[in-house]
Amino acid sequence: MKLSEIDTNNLDNELIKKVFFNVPRETYHYADYVIVYGCHIKELLDERLDYTLEVLKKHDFGKIILTGGIGVNGKFNEAEYMKKYLLENLIDESKIVMENKATTTEENNLNILEMLNFDLVDKPTNIVLVSQEFHLSRIMLHWLKLLDNKNIHFYYDYVLNSSLSYEVIINEPKYLELLKVQLEKIKCFINEGKYADEKIDI
């Protein structure tokens, strides 16, 4: 079964795990770029920032890209908020690249692609994407469709023990509804040709 074929109304725990909590994690030692995705919910954004500090301490890296402007439901500039946090935690400002205009995840990626010309990269480049796992599932599908450059290898790194982990979500009806909305968005973007339509093994 492909993602586009899933019946949102029959989104059970097994499918939730396959669609949103099945993001591949690989070992990496160096990142040319660490991309941290913004969020208008500060609790989730703080989780990402705390985890980003762990990533930066454990790995050699080139640049940190902070993404997010003021989203539709937002009240603060996400990238600016993240920059302030990282500077307060002694991250070198010269390492930070700002993408502070986007209002959606898809705009984040498109702006980054334009800013850094990833499609023209002609040498092996490691890019680490940081968010919560359920969010990275969308990010991954977008990049798979957006960029075809064999020189770039994406690594997906996510917050462990998040307040929106798989265990939390399957036990909270309000979060199940949230994931149904997310799945409908994914299916819509697949139909529009913006996301890759991946096979789900069930």
How would you portray this structure in words?
- There is one protein chain.
- With 202 residues, this protein is of the alpha/beta class.
- The protein has a domain at 31-160: 3-Layer(aba) Sandwich (Rossmann fold), CATH 3.40.50.
- 43% of the residues lie in helices and 16% in strands.
- It has 7 helices and 5 strands, in the order αβαβαβαβαβαα.
- It has helices spanning 13-20, 42-58, 78-88, 105-116, 133-146, 166-170, 173-191, and strands spanning 30-36, 60-67, 96-99, 125-131, 152-158.
- It has a 5-stranded parallel sheet.
- Helix 3 links the parallel strand 2 (60-67) and strand 3 (96-99).
- Helix 2 (42-58) packs across helix 3 (78-88) and helix 4 crosses helix 5 (133-146).
- The chain is globular.
- It starts with 12 loop residues before the first helix and ends in an 11-residue tail after the last helix.
CATH superfamily membership of the domain at 31-160: HUPs
Widest sheet: strand order?
3-2-1-4-5
Cα-based radius of gyration, to the nearest Å: 17 Å
Fraction of residues in β-strands? 15-25%
Order of helices and strands: HEHEHEHEHEHH
* Biggest sheet architecture: 5 strands, parallel
Number of strands: 5
The CATH architecture term of the domain at 31-160 is 3-Layer(aba) Sandwich
Shape verdict? globular
CATH class of the domain at 31-160: Alpha Beta
The secondary structure category is: alpha/beta
The helix tally amounts to 7
The poorly predicted ranges are none
**What distance lies between the first and last C-alpha atoms, to the nearest angstrom?**
8 Å
